[in-house]
Design goal:
mainly beta, Immunoglobulin-like, 6-stranded antiparallel β-sheet, 2 helices, binds 2-acetamido-2-deoxy-beta-D-glucopyranose, Cellobiose dehydrogenase-like cytochrome domain-containing protein, Cellobiose_DH-like_cyt, signal
Length: 214
């Protein structure tokens, strides 16, 4: 099966043809973890959104680690964040809830088929800020290798820690049937893109916050 969907209706649904150069994100301070995040709310069906939040160190070193948070209604089977705004040739961090366990899997693919497990980026789920309750599942994780990665051939893409980066997400209503990072992932129902402002996501105490929440 080829993972190739044209979803013109989705663009209309999300109103996602971003106008001008303004980012699509807002600043959120998460009282629970203490991180300052830049947040995008991705509508995946009418009236329901997944929150994608990014926190970066300030100042950010080369190939900086970042922390991301996904807050998803329980109707979300899985959702993935594409750090290069494409299904192909970039790290995909895919999350779901297996019972009460939040699960994260890093995948990558060069073709539009099910992405395979990828070890070029490493994720660490932070204890604080990762949970499942009756209405939502939420994952907070550190990623090493999401901000700078190889794309095609010998090309590398590096995200700008003090600027706007285009990201993408995909959503499926079908939950993977295990807590294994290698679980089968069904084809997505919806995907879209946005402009995420990392300049509003800086955290002076990034390393201490990672340690505190681990
Ligand atoms: C369930 O989790 C979500 C996401 O973290 C949170 O917004 C909501 O308040 C929680 N609900 C309860 C009843 O704790």
């Amino acid at each position: 099966m080829r993972w190739n969907i044209s979803l013109a209706y989705l663009a209309a649904l999300l109103g996602c043809a971003s106008e001008g150069s303004a980012a699509d994100t807002a600043v959120v301070r998460d009282g629970e973890t203490g991180f300052t995040f830049s947040e995008f709310q991705a509508a995946f069906v009418i009236g329901q959104s997944i929150k994608f939040r990014v926190a970066v160190p300030s100042p950010a070193p080369d190939k900086f680690d970042l922390v991301f948070q996904i807050v998803a209604p329980v109707s979300v089977g899985w959702t993935g964040l594409a750090w290069g705004a494409s299904m192909v040739n970039d790290p995909l961090t895919i999350g779901w809830a297996s019972g009460t366990t939040p699960v994260l899997s890093v995948r990558r693919t060069t073709v539009r088929t099910q992405p395979q497990v990828y070890d070029g980026a490493k994720v660490q789920i932070l204890k604080t800020g990762s949970k499942v309750n009756g209405t939502h599942w939420q994952i907070t994780a550190k990623c090493s290798g999401c901000s700078s990665f190889s794309t095609t051939g010998s090309n590398t893409k590096s995200l700008n820690p003090t600027g706007v980066n285009r990201l993408a997400f995909a959503y499926s209503k079908t939950k993977p049937n295990s807590a294994s990072a290698a679980a089968m992932i069904s084809v997505h129902d919806v995907y879209s893109y946005w402009d995420h402002d990392f300049s509003a996501a800086g955290n002076l105490d990034f390393d201490q916050l990672v340690t505190k929440n681990t």
